Amino acid sequence: MKKLWLTCCLVLILYLESSLVKAQPARKELILKWKSEYLHLATSTAWLKKLTWAKYLENIELKQRFAQIPQNQTKLHPKAVDLSTIYTLYYSSPLPQFKIIRFLQSLPYFEYVEPLPTLIPFSTGYRPNDPLLNNHLTFSRIRAFEAWELQKGDTNITIAVVDSEIAWDHPDLENNIKINYQDPINGIDDDNDGYRDNYRGWDLAGEALSANQPDNDTRSLTNFAHGTQVAGFAAAVPDNNIGIAGTGFRTKILPVKVTPDIGPGNTNMSYGYDGIIYAANAG
Prior knowledge:
Elements: H1 2-23, E1 28-34, H2 46-49, E2 58-64, E3 86-92, H3 97-105, E4 110-115, H4 138-141, H5 144-150, E5 158-163, E6 202-203, H6 226-235, E7 252-257, H7 272-281
Parallel strand pairs: 5-7, 6-7
Antiparallel strand pairs: 1-3, 1-4, 2-3
């Protein structure tokens, strides 16, 4: 009976010891950049072990992450950035990493303290169902598909297209046109911004250019579709089985037309600066 009792106690002790070993926190890494006047502290961790929070840190080690550029190479690379003050701090702690970071950031020694970044390789990305995307190599070159996997734009962001005619009723654009609901088309400047019925952007150079009275329709009959094309690359509606998807995906388009309608090949952007100011004032 005594032997059985001793055996049980031994098994319990071994179990507790193994549990304690498993419970020990894993070694972690932080990236920190020293201020030059405190760089001498990087040669030892003795100062760190004397701090109040040191009781929460174990297995402390500081290691220079990037070597200093050799003197004989500085002439070859005069614009090279000195990264030698960036170090890795290895440690173990039961505390959440953000608390350790906050503590170290409160010290005067560092320009920054950050967690070790984890880089996740892109997959093939997100591909919307728009049929003409594959006809444009630009989307692959700028890695739009990979970007869309991470972020698909924001309807609160508006891209002003200051250009020639912009067909706001184009089936691949109309649902991404920025609408000014404060000034509906009723012949009145409802929002008092100086532009009457600027419901879908503004035409600064329409058919009545000579009388300086824009017709405020950013569409045109001249078939010069440069503005429409640019608007499409900026924010054509995605996943609608039409045309392409704009780089901004869900972002909105503010049409600002600055070329006249009339005259064959008349594509002079006479009101380009005015268009930029209009867009800026519109936010």
